[in-house]
């Protein structure tokens, strides 16, 4: 007790000291690291991408021990309890626009996520315990992030991809919840994992109204650990990113009277987020802001600049970034601390440029507010994914339908592939990974592939295919495909037919009439590696985010979520059900009782004794009955009783009418 | 003697329900008369029994937000309209230029634009394609380049939505001959679209379909929907590979250069459709002092959109924009004497009822009754016909709720100011409806799908109007049973010793079956008649009639040898009619209702003229004549004063429209109504 107390005091002291002396924090923490970075990038459709990147590292336990100063305890415990090797959790609202925001660069490939929640994890446990670990993990995460991730617990919601999703072994589980609404209640626990929360540093910018007012919002948590390897080197690395696409309001008034719509809106951090940075998070090893200018934009700017060269002959440099002073297409309100340019561009003519701003020397009285001002209108387009992918449903009605995946070549991929290998017949490898819930019963044998409108034999196109059909109420259907598409194709489509299943009444969600979701499919292009290799003039870059960008990774894209209307029972009318059930019960029990109670002979005796009595009603009844019964077997005698009964009944009707008339008259004159 | 104990055993075993049945059968005549009269009275009572509509789905919240359309949107729409009309005046090639202009404006607003090129496939009679989607066949043989048309589709992606659902706005226009009204409707859609690109509350994507209606409004929308839902991938190469486009694309315009990069030729999609609104502008109406909004909702085979959609539109139009909302009605009924008389009767009955008990809110004013029934008749007729009343019908085939909103201005808009005002109104209405539908989490399911409208804010639900139908058909089985038992009894007397006496109904059943088979063949005949080239409608009709008659005689010779007892025949006929009507009531209730109105009296009354009295047989004759589909058509036409004179050609076109639209009414007429009518004539002429 006393020891822990003394440790706590020590910790407080350390924290205090560390906040006092910001410079030496990283050295003092000996191994535990936290960095915060923000990347801003103007997008072609007048929007701005902001990408926050926070990274916390802790060295392996066997060399560092169990006690941490920066690294979140919740994550550490999570990793140890469920023996997680790697895990990624993302909360996304909105759709990434692959056409205008790009689909090829590292940020799009790793941060464009499907709407809702997506979770995958690799466990370091024996294969038979993976499912149990996954279930516990979903519950823990659900508590940790205030989201219904626990719905991924049921075996119908997650799957174990064989090979396509990632190259890792069979200990990976993947699940997604397309319908999960993402809001600030998910962001707050995510921020809690940061050492400074949103009280200092770059996370101060996360003003909830402005970041949730964007066009895309994706918060991601990615952790890797080699804690359980025999030789642990890295420990646990927790990477937290928040990717937002915001529409800046035009800052300057010039835009209004410059007639062209093409002048991009200028922006500053305060206009985007409504907040400014007071300085770095004291616990952060480094705290940087980057502005990325895409290669095609650099290229186009050079063009425009060359066009206006006559107007201002001073600038005609070959090196792009030297041209960007205050007299270029755009300018910064603060001079960049460093400029990095890309070294391995796919574009022959455009090199993407990264401007770095260190915020170490800003503080409360001198906040950091980066402004970005456009001087000249310029248009450009992002680097698109090799293929434009869209997935849609075909057919109508509640019985069956088809899922279609349409792949269309973009001009970019055409040029790349043509330039690459002209002589031999070239192929474009496309990996498809798709999970379909069990109530969409996909018939995988109906797979059809069309290339440029021509049906193709499956074996010509599909290189590898593994399918695990869905099992009703047990597991979803998983399809993994490797397609080899000819490079010169314009479009390809893949269709799969399905039948819509029926759910049990208590399996329907509360808003069953909305329809049911098919989660996004993942399309990846292993032939293409996205990698932006940046190089500063003198030194290598010590930034986790930039080094992430320099990693080789496969180009990935997600398709749309599909909404399948299924047959739904009429939930809104339980009354009808109750009524019908009661009627059926009443009929059943009534007839049963009747049959049990009845004794034929006794009844006849009773009838006979009744006949002897001469009540008027009885007389009427018996005559009525005799008429009804007598008719089929005593035709001659049927006429007189019927006439007599008619006579009597008409008399009765007359009486009833009389009574009714009296009542009517009484009401009429009384009222 | 051996039979007595047996019958004594049987005697007490009759259950009350059987006794009641037997009683009804014994009094079938009285029962029939009472039920039929009650059925007709119930039908006439429908306008009185109609209820006020109410928005049933709470999520819709119509009118809860104030409209956001600004002057900027509307002035943009004005500019857009001016460009459209000037382009029409200036250019000969408006058919190509106008879609481009629309695409340019959509793209400038921030929509994702694509062209949808399609070929016109005129509706053809496919006898085996009733109730199936007509797209399974892929052998469109003669693809001529001339019949190309281009829809322009703009999509707004909801900023924070997940893109699973979409709302569709449709503006049909004819690019070859753009009228002022079409330009106005495009303007309204433009102003709404312009606003919707900026708002942040969108949860569903918005699709604006500027439908090229040079080959018909319905066709363009149907073609787009077909490619949206069931694209045929095999066609892709053909459509784009051949030289059709080259010829049309040769004269490049400068518009094309601007938007070249942004417009794609491949169809863009936006998820499952939640609702669709077809926006039209009609010519200025002469009546009323307000701008009016006409709502058309009937889709094929009497399917209706969810009542909530109509409620939202009419609520917003009345309370938001002060429009006068109308539903189509039969104008000639408005001053019919007998309807007024019935209305007066109901009104007085209602008054008396109210004086008896003030709680009884029964009876409505005569004027309301007459208008209600005029609307009801139109609603019933349109549903029964099974032909959609506009391009919204194409959506219903894909289970999308859709209506046509036709706004007709009070006076024609020549002045700029009035036009702007009109655009503001229209735009706000569209905005409001879009916003309501956008609020909807689930698809439309709360309110009614089966209903008849008696005015824009009154409806009769299925629970009420099915009473009339049930009362009308109820006598049929009773009559059949009573006829059968009568026939059996008379047989018992005459031929007691004959074996298999209970199988006697087989012979009339054979006759009835043959006649129904004939009806099925008659329904298929037009397909073969269409194979005869260059024939006039009149001659086609005559060929059809004569072929049918010929077939009837051939089939008659099959069955003719054995004379059947007319009571048995009538009994079987009546049962067949009952089954047919009940089946039809499942498919299209309105058809069954109208069919029952025509068929039931004939079936009940018909008797061989030798047996029946003079008056009876004269009445029968009249009923039988009216019962013939063609005769009924002309009688209805003349009674309700639908336009055009009566001619055979018109009848032919009417039938043609039925099968062109895959209306189940055609099947009903040929396979239920016509055979029953022939059987009735057969009974009438029966030589006892």
Automatic annotation (TrEMBL), chain A:
<dbReference type="GO" id="GO:0042765">
    <property type="term" value="C:GPI-anchor transamidase complex"/>
</dbReference>
<protein>
    <recommendedName>
        <fullName>GPI transamidase component PIG-T</fullName>
    </recommendedName>
</protein>
<keyword id="KW-0812">Transmembrane</keyword>
<keyword id="KW-0472">Membrane</keyword>
<feature type="signal peptide">
    <location>
        <begin position="1"/>
        <end position="19"/>
    </location>
</feature>
<feature type="transmembrane region" description="Helical">
    <location>
        <begin position="652"/>
        <end position="669"/>
    </location>
</feature>
<feature type="transmembrane region" description="Helical">
    <location>
        <begin position="575"/>
        <end position="596"/>
    </location>
</feature>
<keyword id="KW-1133">Transmembrane helix</keyword>
<dbReference type="Pfam" id="PF04113">
    <property type="entry name" value="Gpi16"/>
</dbReference>
<keyword id="KW-0732">Signal</keyword>
<dbReference type="GO" id="GO:0016255">
    <property type="term" value="P:attachment of GPI anchor to protein"/>
</dbReference>
<dbReference type="InterPro" id="IPR007245">
    <property type="entry name" value="PIG-T"/>
</dbReference>
TrEMBL record, chain B:
<feature type="transmembrane region" description="Helical">
    <location>
        <begin position="618"/>
        <end position="640"/>
    </location>
</feature>
<keyword id="KW-1133">Transmembrane helix</keyword>
<dbReference type="GO" id="GO:0016255">
    <property type="term" value="P:attachment of GPI anchor to protein"/>
</dbReference>
<keyword id="KW-0472">Membrane</keyword>
<feature type="transmembrane region" description="Helical">
    <location>
        <begin position="578"/>
        <end position="606"/>
    </location>
</feature>
<feature type="transmembrane region" description="Helical">
    <location>
        <begin position="20"/>
        <end position="46"/>
    </location>
</feature>
<feature type="transmembrane region" description="Helical">
    <location>
        <begin position="462"/>
        <end position="485"/>
    </location>
</feature>
<keyword id="KW-0812">Transmembrane</keyword>
<protein>
    <submittedName>
        <fullName>Uncharacterized protein</fullName>
    </submittedName>
</protein>
<feature type="transmembrane region" description="Helical">
    <location>
        <begin position="505"/>
        <end position="529"/>
    </location>
</feature>
<dbReference type="GO" id="GO:0042765">
    <property type="term" value="C:GPI-anchor transamidase complex"/>
</dbReference>
<dbReference type="InterPro" id="IPR007246">
    <property type="entry name" value="Gaa1"/>
</dbReference>
<feature type="transmembrane region" description="Helical">
    <location>
        <begin position="660"/>
        <end position="685"/>
    </location>
</feature>
<dbReference type="Pfam" id="PF04114">
    <property type="entry name" value="Gaa1"/>
</dbReference>
<feature type="transmembrane region" description="Helical">
    <location>
        <begin position="541"/>
        <end position="558"/>
    </location>
</feature>
């Amino acid at each position: 007790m006393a020891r822990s107390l003394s440790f706590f005091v020590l910790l407080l002291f350390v924290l205090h000291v560390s906040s006092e002396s910001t410079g030496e924090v990283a050295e003092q923490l000996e191994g535990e690291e936290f960095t915060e970075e923000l990347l801003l990038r103007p997008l072609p459709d007048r929007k701005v991408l902001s990408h926050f990147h926070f990274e916390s590292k802790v060295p392996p336990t066997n060399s560092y021990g169990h006690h941490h100063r920066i690294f979140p305890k919740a994550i550490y415990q999570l990793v140890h309890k469920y023996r997680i090797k790697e895990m990624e959790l993302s909360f996304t609202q909105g759709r990434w626009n692959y056409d205008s925001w790009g689909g090829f660069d590292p940020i799009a490939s790793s941060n464009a996520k499907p709407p809702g929640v997506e979770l995958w994890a690799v466990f370091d446990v024996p294969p038979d315990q993976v499912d149990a670990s996954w279930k516990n993990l979903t519950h823990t995460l659900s508590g940790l992030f205030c989201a219904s991730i626990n719905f991924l617990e049921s075996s119908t919601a997650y799957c174990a991809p064989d090979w396509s999703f990632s190259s890792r072994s069979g200990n990976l589980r993947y699940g997604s919840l397309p319908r999960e609404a993402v809001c600030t209640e998910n962001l707050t626990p995510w921020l809690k994992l940061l050492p400074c929360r949103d009280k200092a540093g770059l996370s101060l910018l996360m003003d909830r109204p402005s970041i949730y007012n964007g066009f895309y919002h994706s918060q991601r948590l990615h952790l890797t650990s080699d804690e359980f390897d025999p030789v642990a080197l890295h420990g646990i690395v927790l990477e937290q990113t928040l990717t937002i696409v915001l529409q800046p309001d035009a800052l300057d008034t010039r835009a209004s009277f410059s007639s062209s719509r093409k002048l991009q809106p200028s922006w500053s951090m305060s206009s985007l987020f409504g907040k400014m940075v007071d300085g770095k998070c004291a616990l952060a090893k480094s705290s940087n802001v980057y502005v990325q200018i895409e290669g095609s934009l650099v290229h186009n700017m050079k063009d425009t600049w060359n066009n206006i060269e006559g107007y201002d002959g001073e600038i005609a440099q070959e090196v792009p970034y030297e041209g960007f002073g205050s007299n270029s297409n755009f300018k910064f309100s603060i001079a960049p601390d460093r400029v990095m340019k890309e070294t391995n561009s796919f574009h022959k003519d455009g090199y993407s440029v990264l401007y770095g701003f260190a915020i170490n020397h800003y503080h409360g009285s001198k906040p950091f507010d980066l402004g970005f001002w456009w001087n000249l209108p310029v248009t450009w387009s992002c680097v698109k994914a090799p293929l434009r992918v869209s997935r849609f449903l075909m057919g109508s009605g509640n019985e069956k339908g088809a899922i279609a995946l349409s792949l269309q070549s973009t001009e970019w991929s055409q040029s790349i592939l043509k330039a690459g290998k002209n002589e031999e017949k070239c192929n474009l490898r496309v990996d498809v990974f798709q999970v379909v819930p069990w109530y969409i019963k996909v018939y995988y044998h109906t797979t059809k592939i069309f290339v440029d409108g021509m049906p193709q034999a499956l074996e010509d196109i599909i290189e590898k295919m593994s399918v695990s059909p869905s099992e009703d109420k047990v597991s979803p259907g998983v399809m993994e495909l490797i397609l080899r598409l000819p490079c010169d194709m314009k479009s390809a489509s893949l269709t799969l037919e399905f039948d819509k299943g029926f759910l049990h009444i208590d399996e329907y969600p509360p808003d069953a009439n909305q329809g049911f979701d098919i989660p996004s499919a993942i399309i990846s292009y292993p032939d293409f590696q996205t990698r932006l290799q940046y190089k500063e003039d003198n030194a290598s870059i010590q930034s986790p985010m930039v080094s992430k960008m320099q990693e080789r990774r496969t180009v990935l894209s997600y398709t749309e979520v599909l909404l399948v209307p299924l047959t739904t029972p009429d939930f809104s009318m339980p009354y009808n059900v109750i009524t019908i059930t009661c009627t059926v019960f009443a009929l059943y029990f009534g007839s049963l009782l009747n049959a049990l109670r009845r004794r034929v002979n006794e009844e006849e005796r009773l009838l006979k004794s009744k006949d002897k009595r001469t009540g008027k009603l009885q007389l009427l009844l018996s005559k009525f009955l005799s008429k009804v019964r007598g008719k089929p077997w005593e035709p001659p005698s049927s006429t007189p009783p019927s006439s007599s009964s008619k006579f009597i009944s008409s008399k009765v009707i007359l009486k009833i009418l009389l009574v009714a008339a009296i009542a009517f008259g009484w009401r009429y004159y009384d009222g | 003697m051996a039979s007595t104990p047996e019958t004594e055993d049987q005697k007490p075993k009759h259950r009350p329900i059987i006794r009641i049945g037997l009683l009804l059968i014994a009094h079938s005549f009285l029962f029939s008369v009472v039920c039929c009269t009650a059925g007709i009275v119930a039908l006439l009572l429908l306008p009185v029994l109609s209820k006020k509509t109410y928005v049933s789905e709470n999520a819709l919240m119509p009118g809860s937000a104030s409209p956001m359309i600004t002057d900027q949107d509307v002035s943009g729409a004005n500019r857009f309209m001016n460009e459209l009309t000037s382009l029409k005046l200036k250019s000969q090639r408006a058919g190509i230029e106008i879609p481009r202009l629309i695409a340019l404006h959509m793209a400038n607003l921030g929509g994702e634009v694509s062209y949808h090129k399609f070929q016109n496939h005129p509706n053809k009679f496919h006898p085996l394609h009733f109730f199936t989607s007509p797209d399974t066949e892929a052998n469109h043989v003669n693809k001529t380049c001339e019949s190309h048309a281009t829809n322009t589709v703009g999509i707004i992606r909801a900023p924070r939505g997940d893109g699973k659902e979409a709302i569709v706005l449709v503006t049909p226009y004819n690019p070859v001959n753009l009228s002022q009204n079409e330009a106005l409707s495009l303007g309204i859609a433009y102003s709404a679209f312009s606003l919707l690109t900026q708002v942040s509350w969108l949860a569903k994507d918005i699709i604006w379909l500027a439908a090229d209606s040079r080959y018909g409004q319905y066709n363009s929308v149907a073609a787009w929907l077909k490619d949206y839902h069931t694209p045929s991938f095999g066609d892709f190469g053909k459509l784009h590979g051949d030289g059709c486009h080259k010829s049309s694309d040769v004269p490049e315009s400068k518009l094309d250069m601007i938007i070249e990069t942004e417009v794609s030729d491949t169809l863009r999609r936006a998820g499952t459709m939640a609702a669709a609104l077809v926006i039209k502008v009609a010519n200025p109406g002469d009546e009323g002092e307000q701008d009016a909004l006409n709502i058309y909702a009937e889709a094929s085979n009497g399917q209706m959109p969810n009542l909530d959609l109509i409620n939202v539109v009419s609520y917003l139009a009345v309370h938001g924009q002060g429009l006068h909302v109308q539903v189509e009605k039969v104008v000639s009924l408005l001053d019919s004497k007998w309807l007024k008389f019935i209305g007066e009767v109901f009104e007085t009955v209602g008054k008396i009822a109210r004086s008896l008990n003030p709680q009884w809110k029964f009876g409505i004013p005569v004027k309301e009754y007459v208008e209600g029934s005029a609307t009801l008749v139109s609603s019933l007729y349109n549903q029964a016909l099974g032909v959609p009343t506009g391009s919204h019908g194409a959506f219903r085939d894909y289970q999308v709720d859709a209506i046509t909103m036709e706004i007709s201005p009070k006076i024609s808009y020549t002045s700029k100011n009035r036009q702007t005002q009109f655009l503001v109104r229209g735009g706000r209405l569209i905005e409001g409806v879009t916003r309501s539908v956008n609020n909807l989490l689930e698809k439309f399911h709360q309110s009614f799908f089966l209903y008849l409208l008696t005015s824009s804010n009154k409806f009769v639900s299925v629970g009420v109007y099915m009473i009339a139908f049930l009362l009308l058909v109820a006598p049929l089985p009773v009559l059949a049973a009573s006829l059968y038992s009568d026939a059996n009894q008379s047989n018992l007397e005459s031929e007691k010793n004959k074996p298999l006496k209970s199988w006697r109904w087989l012979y009339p059943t054979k006759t009835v079956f043959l006649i129904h088979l004939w009806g099925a063949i008659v329904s298929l005949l037009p397909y073969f008649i269409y194979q005869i080239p260059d024939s006039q409608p009149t001659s086609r009709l005559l060929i059809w009639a004569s072929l049918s008659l010929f077939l009837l005689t051939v089939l008659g010779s099959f069955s003719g040898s054995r004379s059947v007892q007319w009571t048995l025949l009538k009994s079987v006929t009546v049962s067949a009619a009952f089954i047919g009507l009940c089946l039809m009531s499942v498919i299209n209730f309105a058809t069954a209702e109208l069919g029952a109105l025509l068929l039931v009296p004939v079936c009940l009354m018909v008797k061989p003229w030798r047996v029946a009295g003079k008056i009876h047989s004269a009445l029968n004759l009249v009923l039988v004549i009216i019962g013939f589909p063609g005769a009924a058509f002309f009688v209805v036409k003349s009674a309700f004063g639908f336009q055009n004179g009566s001619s055979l050609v018109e009848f032919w076109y009417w039938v043609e429209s039925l099968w062109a639209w895959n209306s189940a009414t055609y099947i009903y007429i040929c396979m239920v109504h016509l055979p029953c009518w022939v059987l009735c004539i057969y009974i009438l002429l029966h030589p006892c």
